[in-house]
Amino acid sequence: MNIRGDSEISRELAIFWKSNPDNNELMLKIYFIVCILFPLALSSCSSTRTSFSRHEIRGISPEEAYRLGKIKNTPYIINGRVYVPMSYEESFSYEETGTASWYGQETLDQHNGQLTAYGETFDPSRPSAAHKYLPLPALVKVTNLDTLASIIVRVNDRGPFVDDRVIDLSAEAAKILGFYEKGTARVKVEVVSR
Description:
With 194 residues, the protein is of the alpha+beta class. 28% of the residues lie in helices and 24% in strands. The protein has two domains: 6-43, no CATH class; 54-191, Beta Barrel (Barwin-like endoglucanases), CATH 2.40.40.10.
């Protein structure tokens, strides 16, 4: 068996290339397809849904809010029940599994465009969340335990105040996590703002 080195094969290819000028056009077409069209075709296979990274989330970061003394974690009362949010430091290790629900345009209309508990405009078409006990603002990774889809959202509101739900997500976040039609999902919530 004759084993040739890379340099010998390269020399043979160079000789073949020079001795067959008609193949130059064919090789250029193959090169174009492999290097240009193939990556474009692959990129069109990806999802068109926008994913939101931590850098695309609007508003002041939890770290900056803490530094500026703008963390909101004062106790509050809803329907006669007192809620005492955790401190910024306590939130570092927060992790919980439970039921998530979502809220959207109907909530915005029902409350006449009222600002979130952190004083920001609620936009159901952008990922965001409401939580009863996390300091505001907070960044959390929410994972749908049925589909394993996950998203990082900014918590800037209070809720949900229904049953045993642990987090309320905007309509857009629910769509990304794949439970918009169903209404609720079993999720894992983890603080990522450290």
